[in-house]
Amino acid sequence: MNGLNKGIRKVEIALRWDPSPSGQPSTDLDLVAAPYLAGDTQGDPAYVVHFDSRSPDGTITLNRDSKDGKGFGYDEVMTLELDRLAERYARVAVGVIIQQHQGLRTFAAVTNPGLRIREGYDVLAEDDFGGIPDATAARVAEFVRDGSGPWEFRPGVLGFDGDPATFTRTMGAPRRP
Fold first, then answer.
1. Residue 97 — φ and ψ, nearest 5°?
2. Per residue in 84-104, pLDDT tens?
3. DSSP 93-117
4. What is the pLDDT of residues 38-52, one digit of tens each?
5. For residue 25, what are the contacts with CB-CB under 8 A and spacing of at least 6?
């Protein structure tokens, strides 16, 4: 790695979906982020940032939260200020959860979902969840670093099944081949 590479510094994760059809229960998707300590990057997260919360140090913030997908553009937006995150953290996993208020709902039942991950104006990844239609949640990104080195982005959407509480405990599990 060359000395001029600063790695990933500040990232915006944006999520959109269309409102449910008339007469149907509303669809509620949520962004979640979980930092992991350097000594335990695959275990339990140090904490979880989700609706109605932010990181204790203010480096991970949910800027916009929607409960129904009504609005223009992206309905949920989260900012990760990785360059400000303490050196004791070596990994951050980011996920999307479909709230299950009205019974089982998968990505196949969400109208026009979309994900965009960008640093500044540079789009790092986009997805429509079409590869995981039967999942109720998904890990959508990982950011990792060695020691105090630069943060690197690991793209990839990995689907999960289960309730939101289970997902927040397992979203950081190693990928299975």
1. -120, 135
2. 999 999 999 999 999 887 778
3. EEEEEE--TTS---GGGSSS-EEEE
4. 988 888 899 999 877
5. 101, 102
